[in-house]
Amino acid sequence: MEIVNFFYNKSLYEKAEVTFFIHKALIEELLPESDVQHVGSTAIPNSITKGDLDIQVRVKANIFPKAVKELAKLYELNEGSVKTETFRAFKDDSTVPPVGVQLTVINSEFDFFWKFRDVLLMNANYRKEYDNLKRKYKGMEMEDYREAKNKFFEKMMATLEYKNI
Fold it and tell me: Sorting pLDDT into bands at 50, 70 and 90, what band is 80?
């Protein structure tokens, strides 16, 4: 049973930003045709976080197989995540903060991480609601939190802000 915890720490956000730019440069060196985005809670100023850095790597469909191979040189495949022809998840738990990389085909069903970030940046009420959801699940089972988070993001996908991006 994995327990989830959240916190806010300004120095973590600063470290996440530096770490993002380091990884972005590494990824773009291997995949210059990719769109590398800082996503997740560390991309949202003043939000609470689990303390990891999330990166979305967006590529065209014809580049996806190459991107999987190239990212596997830098990161471990996240075996606990979904694996499709348009999505792969990678991780590096040895960095500070730990890094999660979501590889997506542009305009595929999993190409939404950057949109969630943008909607949260645009709407303070959604940010508050998301932080409150995190507070509610602090110290609880990760699976329960993930289920609630998925429902929150499904609701967000129905909003005009999300649809207009």
Answer: confident
